[in-house]
Design a protein that fits this description.
Length: about 350
């Protein structure tokens, strides 16, 4: 081939998505398969969301509202921020990419923790950034070490809070000290994809911190708690000037009309999602208790997934689980040998996973 793709693309270790359910059924000759691999909400959308989708399906011959007007107003009210502090993305992933495109040029540095959410590293490398990786300490972000590693060239620091795959979080006090130490030319991105699952008193109010620190961007999503992973809606909250800059470089119609209608309906039916989140929280305790009874080490998780040390080859464990129709995530790829990550499912799914895992271990 004569095309000259950019060199930095070949440095990227491609993201390997989990296998789709139908493919696992076909490959392994199974009639039923469960997927606990992508940290999705296991429950169906609320009836109001389904009704909104039906209504708006009739209008898909039209382009969507490029400004997400109604969603923007509703979300601004809920978060108590100005509408111009919000930007919407095709998943919160897109906001991370927009921030990189707006701030990073060839040779600039981007700081990430290791291991952490893979998109930070992949998207940074595509932009030609030099990646500065700071190791997790006891599976938590080492914010003092990260602050020390900042240089004049550091343009963005990604903080998954809580992070994936560890499920751990950084506290309000740790974040305050970190922000005091970081120079204001570096954008600190708090990726709060799992925000709504966190039930911790010392979890930081990152939006509140924006009043003092203009170099803070918060990203959240409708993919997890709100169960709209298949529609792709995420959003960023930041200083109006920063958001104005990001808005200039996004695609004009990046949020499709069904996604906008569904996200708005979610906000109007928050009680349903809170009920589902309570079920997920109690299922997380159920899973953690059962896994620990099996003698497995599980890190306390602030999210809807659990990182498990299975104490043997995790790739083999995941492969054996596939034979039993259970898809979870092998953490070998993240450099976490002998670890797997499982998403909290329904009670029935969790029982099936536990029984299959017991059989294998
Ligand atoms: C830490 C973290 N950030 C962001 C995302 C992406 O979410 P979205 O679906 O909004 O792009 C995920 C999804 O797995 C995640 O784990």
């Amino acid at each position: 081939m004569k095309l000259l793709l950019k060199q930095n693309i070949w440095r990227v270790k491609p993201y390997v998505p989990g296998k789709p359910i139908e493919e696992v059924k076909r490959e392994y000759g199974l009639s039923s398969v469960i997927k606990l691999a992508s940290n999705e909400n296991p429950f169906p959308p609320s009836p109001q969301v389904l009704a909104a989708l039906r209504t708006h399906a009739k209008e898909i011959n039209r382009y969507p509202d490029g400004d997400c007007f109604y969603l923007r107003q509703a979300l601004a009210r809920r978060l108590r921020v100005l509408p111009q502090q919000l930007i919407f993305g095709n998943g919160s992933d897109e906001i991370l990419v927009l921030a990189l495109r707006a701030l990073v040029s060839d040779g600039d540095e981007v700081m990430v923790a290791k291991p952490s959410f893979l998109v930070y590293g992949i998207a940074s490398q595509v932009m030609g950034a030099a990646l500065k990786e700071v190791l997790l300490k006891n599976l938590r972000y080492d914010l003092p070490a990260m602050a020390q590693a900042v240089t004049d060239k550091t343009k963005i620091i990604f903080i998954g809070n809580p992070d994936n795959p560890a499920g751990t979080y950084v506290t309000a006090q740790e974040v305050e000290e970190f922000l005091k130490a970081v120079p204001s030319h570096a954008l600190v991105v708090f990726d709060e994809a799992y925000y709504e699952f966190v039930q911790k008193n010392d979890y930081p109010d990152a939006i509140g911190l924006m009043r003092t620190y203009e170099n803070v961007l918060v990203t959240r999503t409708f993919s997890k708690f709100y169960g709209l992973a298949g529609l792709r809606v995420g959003f960023g909250i930041g200083h109006p000037k920063l958001i104005d800059g990001l808005n200039r470089i996004r695609e004009p119609f990046n949020i499709n009309s069904l996604a906008q209608a569904a996200a708005l309906a979610c906000l109007l039916d928050i009680a349903y999602y809170r009920r589902m989140a309570r079920k997920i929280a109690s299922q997380k305790i159920f899973l953690l208790t059962a896994l620990r009874k099996m003698g497995l080490d599980c890190k306390e998780s602030a999210t809807n997934f659990i990182l498990i040390d299975v104490k043997k080859n995790s790739s083999e464990v995941c492969e054996q689980l596939l034979h039993k129709g259970v898809i979870i995530r092998d953490m070998n790829f993240w450099g976490l040998e002998n670890f797997v990550r499982v998403t909290v499912g329904t009670n029935q799914e969790n029982r099936r996973f536990l029984a299959a895992l017991k059989g294998i271990l």
